[in-house]
Request: fold
Amino acid sequence: MKHTKLSKEALKEIRANAGRGGLLYRDLAKKYGVHVMTINYWANDVLKEKAKAAKRKWTAKNKDYMKEYHRKANQALKMEVLSHYSSTLECACCGERHIEFLSMDHIGGGGAKHRKEIGLGKLYHWLKKNNYPAGFRVLCMNCNHAYGHYDDCPHNKKDMFK
Reply:
């Protein structure tokens, strides 16, 4: 038997019987004069699409659950990354300890360029995936903003605008 392009009739029958496998696939292969792996390939393709559709439908019905699930997962990832870069979980500049205010800073700048390279909102994933590279620190949002716009923080100077 050889691998050939299947007719619309054959594909329709394979799709109708996807997931039943075994002898049925062998019988279909004989019927259409193709290798059983061709039948398996098309059946698996159909099953993958059915699974994706079912997942999309379930996710749409369970939006609140998925929102909470992702919120908790993102919080856990943030805690893991912040804990790696700051054992005391505080801003390296002012000592702020509210987790909601803490963020990661690119030491020496370059954060905007790096975010464009890895994708917006993916820094914590990138840090973990790359084994927490050097060149980052924990800062609160205010200190991070000041370093980004003024190259220093008011906590280090009396008046930055003089």
Summary: The chain is about 60% helix and 5% strand.
